[in-house]
Specification:
There is one protein chain. With about 300 residues, the chain is mainly alpha-helical. It has a domain of about 160 residues. The protein contains eleven helices and nine strands. β5 and β6 form a beta hairpin. α5 runs parallel beside α10, α6 packs antiparallel against α10 and α7 packs across α10.
Length: about 300
């Protein structure tokens, strides 16, 4: 058993999640293969949340753009009442059947399947103690009635299973995304609901690589941030650079973790521009108010 202390947490009685936290060296029994009696059953009950690296792997596998992938293969969702955007895999018609499932072959994108599929029947938990800046990971067992894999004679540690499923690189690539979500959840209601612009920025940087790339290459962005030509050249061609920088950018604008240097005077310029915009809006609003007031006065006469 792992030296890491287990703890129990509140889970609804009928939940498929077992209320015990596992460490990397704890063992569990499971095996999935084509001959198992429940083959494809989990794909027929798909509820898959996609992380940023999942999208890169799948859209490259399909040979399409991130924008095309989002439109055809995903549906929007939210994390909480504040509307933090998540992306889920679109299922077939109104049924929870994965679009990539084949009755005979199973998963048709197996080599590039999402991290949630790789982890099954494990669930990944990411937690951060108050006043600490690094997150701590744990795992839970998911036992659903249809899954016969738990009855197979194959005992392994969590780390052995993660390595076998090739999920380690997914965790490394998605770590910043996990941390962003954890920070948002940890902040609680005291921070208040994010602005619509913040939510749109979160969606863009996490999921829409094409729009992120255009934004980071735009003239206003170049004028605001002190980044060299080599960086922008990477942004033009490398999806991983776009994804990683997007997470870094979100940490800066949402949580004040300043790692991207602004050009001298850029902040003051933005403040002045916003003042001009606000003054213009006030002027337009006042003119509209006076116009309506004049119309009311004329009709009264």
């Amino acid at each position: 058993m792992s030296d890491e202390k287990k703890f129990e947490f509140d889970i609804p009685f009928k939940s498929a999640v077992q209320p015990v936290r596992l460490g990397p060296n704890d063992k569990f029994n499971f095996r999935c293969y084509k001959g198992v009696s429940c083959f494809n059953e989990c794909c027929k009950q798909a509820d898959i949340t996609l992380a940023p690296y999942d999208i890169i792997r799948l859209k490259d596998r399909l040979g399409i753009s991130a924008t095309e992938f989002l439109k055809k293969y995903t549906v929007p969702s939210t994390l909480d009442a504040h509307g933090l955007p998540l992306i889920k895999m679109r299922t077939m018609d109104q049924k929870p059947v994965c679009q990539f499932m084949d009755e005979e072959k199973g998963c048709t994108v197996y080599e590039d399947r999402p991290s949630a599929c790789r982890y099954y029947p494990l669930g990944l938990m990411s937690m951060r103690k108050e006043h600490e800046y690094t997150d701590e990971r744990g795992y839970v067992i998911v036992k659903e009635a249809h899954c016969m894999g738990h009855k197979e004679d194959n005992n392994q540690t969590v780390d052995e299973y993660r390595k076998e499923q090739g999920v380690e690189i997914y965790d490394d690539m998605n770590r910043d995304w996990y941390q962003l979500i954890l920070k948002k959840q940890s902040s609680g209601p005291a921070v208040g609901k994010p602005s619509e612009m913040s939510l749109q920025m979160f969606f863009m940087c996490c999921y829409d690589l094409d729009r992120s790339r255009r934004f980071f290459l735009s003239e206003p962005f170049r004028k605001t941030y002190d980044l060299d030509d080599a960086f922008f050249k990477e942004i033009e061609t490398d999806d991983m650079t776009v994804m990683k920088f997007g997470m870094r950018f979100l940490k800066q604008i949402l949580f004040g973790e300043v790692t991207i240097k602004e050009r001298e005077g850029a902040y003051e310029k933005r403040v002045d521009e916003r003042k001009d915009i606000m003054e213009m809006r006030k002027k337009v609003a006042l003119e509209e108010f006076n116009r309506k007031n004049d119309m009311y006065t004329d009709s009264s006469d």
